[in-house]
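Task card 7
Instruction: Convert sequence to structure tokens.
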Amino acid sequence: MWLEGSDGSQSPAVVRGLPTGRRLNGSRVLSPLGRAVTEEWVDWHRNYDSDPTLRERLRTVQARLREALDRLPAGPVRLVSACAGDGRDVLGALDGHPRAGDVRALLVELSPDLVAAGRAQALGQGLRGVEFRQGDASDSSVYAGAVPADIVLLCGIFGNVSDADVRRAIREVRSLCAPSATVIWTRGRFAPDLTPTIRSWFAREGYEELSFVTVPRSTKAVGANRLLSDPPPFRPGVRLFTFLPKEERPSSRSETPRRNSRAPTPAARTRRGAGASSPNPRRSTVPRLRR
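Output:
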């Protein structure tokens, strides 16, 4: 789900030190503290009504998702979304898309209210292939049966975890991917801007960059990468990331972008002009590698 934060970042499936409660009849029952935190995430969704840059980020994610669907060959499509909230990015992208009927999507979210809202919306759109699962999106076990996926969404996660966990998620999420899967992610460019480093981490783990878009008048950014290396086997029980307490999250930093935040990644600097942003919305692409 999309949690509060100056980058429009998404809410955590797990917060360090947060008791998430027990399970009852297969559903997670939140502790009082866990319930209070998930209510905060529900409240954050109201920002879509007041923040035009957040709505622009949503449209950008949806555009990347539609492009990923357009690239895939005919046949079933598997999609997973971590910390999916009410799923408005996936449901919006599928609305009216010719491949919507091919998609078998698993959207994982901790908040029962957001899961209920997403299920109702999916039902209203007739998207029978979209499943919302209340659970811990940071535990790889929750994706069993839904992977390997052709499209993986990591929206709003990277602004709420440590730098080390960003790199770990980039590495570990490969086990959720099908060959040539597209991974769509978001991160704010608040100081110190980690997005150039994140883009280089994706490259080192065998992904090619399809696009990197920055939202004007904000620090918000959306990346899309395709996995070119062979994905490792799926492993249940792997911790993909851990959300930090609110006061420690990078997303709590200033909304003012760094002046050098548009700099290309180190790898892109070797190609003249590669990775540079273009205005409104600012988008950069790098040449695709041939396999």
